[in-house]
Each structure stands twice: as structure tokens, then as C-alpha cells.
Amino acid sequence: MMAGSVVWATFAGSAVWVWLTGGLWWPLAAFAGWGLLLQSPGVMVGGLLTAIGWNQLVTARRFAASRDRDEEAALLFLVRLDQLLRVRGTLAGALQEMGYRSPLRGADAGERVLAQVAAGYQISALSFVSRVVRVVHRYGGSLSPLLAWAVDAVHGDQARRHGRQLEEAAQRATVVVLAFAPWGVLGIFRVAVPSFYRTLAGSPLGGGTLAGVGVATAVVFSILAHHERREAMQR
User: Fold this and answer.
1) Which letter does DSSP use for residue 22 in this model?
2) Within 98-143, where are the H helices?
3) How far apart are the first and last CA of the chain?
4) CA distances from 147 to 23, 99, 132, 141, 182 (A)
5) pLDDT for 88-145, tens place per residue?
6) Which three-class secondary structure string do you get for 62-109?
7) For residues 115 and 103, what is the distance between their CA atoms, to the nearest angstrom?
8) Of the ranges 7-16, 117-126, 175-184, which is most confident?
């Protein structure tokens, strides 16, 4: 009875968490079904906790992908702005040619529009350009070297990040495989060594151990998700 209450509480809490965070439903359904198939409350509780951690990692990767798109859009913006600035001669004229118009008039209208664009993308190189443009406008100078530096900076950040991701890809894949492996091994034990499986899954100690595996796996996924988010913010 106690185990059933824990299972239902874990399932309800997991479902609410996924609903609030906009996560994936299929990991919860898969682990719930696997727990029912193996007839083990410990597998279900541990699996649901694993699904929560996996959802955190997937959400972080989605956020990183959105930041990559922002970076690509900001890079395209900088390249296009540099090209049009050479043609139009003024920042405001170049931005207007790109479709960015300020509702306010004044000598610093272009700087205000650029600051708004930078605030929308939140890319460090573009944000730096939006701040330095005000200084260039006040004291004079050409914006082309600044824009060329920003484009090179974005390209450099992308190259370093892609290289680092390629180096870490195998390690992260190994962690994910090892995180999901115990639940598959339990299925093998259920078929190949049923006596051992019944002892493991049927005892309170075994059920607590399986739940502990789920907690540890969720923590590992949470750490990976935190790393993904922190790296995504450094654009």
C-alpha cells in the first residue's frame, strides 16, 4: 500500500512538473509502462525520476538551440549592416534599409534602434557594438572596423564552441547510455534470472535502491542541463 502511494505521488508530481515546464511526455509514459511491465514500484519511481532529469536536459538543449539561432541571426545582421553602412554612409540609413525604423527622431535614432536589436538577440559581440557605437558617434570615427571585429568575434566563438562540442559529444553520449542502461538490464534480469529480479524488485531495500538509482541519474542529467544552459548563455 505504501509503495503504491509513493508511485502515484511520484507519477502525479512528475506529470505536473512536465506540464509546468513544457517538457516531453513520452519519457514519463515509457518509464511508467516499463515499471508496469516489470511489475516493480521501484523501477517505476526510479524511472520517473530519470525521466524528469532527461526532460531537464532536453529543455536545456532546446534553449541552447534557440541561442544558436539567435547567434546566427545576429551574425547575419552584423554582416548586412556592415554592407549597407558602406553604401548608405550612416547608421540610421543602413538600419532603415534593413527595415529597422525608430519611432523617435534625432541624431541618435540609429543608436537607439541598434540598442533595441542588441537587447533582443542578447549576443555579446552585438551588445558590445551597440555600446561602442555611441562613443564613435560622439567622438567620430568609422564603424566598419568595429563591425568587422564583431563578425570575426562571433565566428571565433562559434568555431571554439563547435570544436569543444565535438570533443565532448562522445563523453556525453556515454553518460546518457550509462544512465539508461540499468533500466534495460533490469528487463534482462526479469527474463534471465527471475529469482534475483524478484528479490531485488520485491524487497523494500531493493525498491529503495532502484529509487536511489533514479535520483542519482536525475542529478547527473541536471548537472549536464546546467552546463548546457550556462554555455548557451555565453553567446
Assistant:
1) T
2) 109-121, 124-139
3) 51
4) 39, 19, 10, 12, 52
5) 777 777 888 877 776 656 666 778 888 888 888 888 888 898 888 888 777 777 788 8
6) HHHHHHHHHHHHHHHHHHHHHHHHHHHCCHHHHHHHCCCCCCCCCCCH
7) 14
8) 117-126
Distance CA 83, CA 225 (A): 38
| Spatial CB neighbours of 213, under 8 Å, sequence gap ≥ 6 | 46, 182
What length does the chain have?
Answer: 235
CA atoms within 13 A on the CB side of 216: 11
The identity of residue 47, as a single letter, is: G
Distance CA 120, CA 148 (A): 21
What percentage of the chain reaches a pLDDT higher than 90?
A: 3
Helices (H), 122-203: 124-139, 144-192, 194-202
* Cα torsion angle, 61, 67, 70, 76, sign: negative
pTM: 0.77
Q: Read off the C-alpha cell for 225.
A: 542541463
Reported as type and span, the H/E element at residue 141 is none
In this structure, which amino acid lies at residue 179?
Answer: A
In whole angstroms, what separates CA 159 from the centre of its chain?
19
Provide the grid cell at 121: 538577440
Residue with cell 523501477: 43
Residue 90 CB neighbours (<10 A): 12
Cα–Cα distance for residue pair 165/154, rounded to 1 Å:
16
**C-alpha dist (Å) from residue 57 to 92, 125, 216:** 42, 27, 14
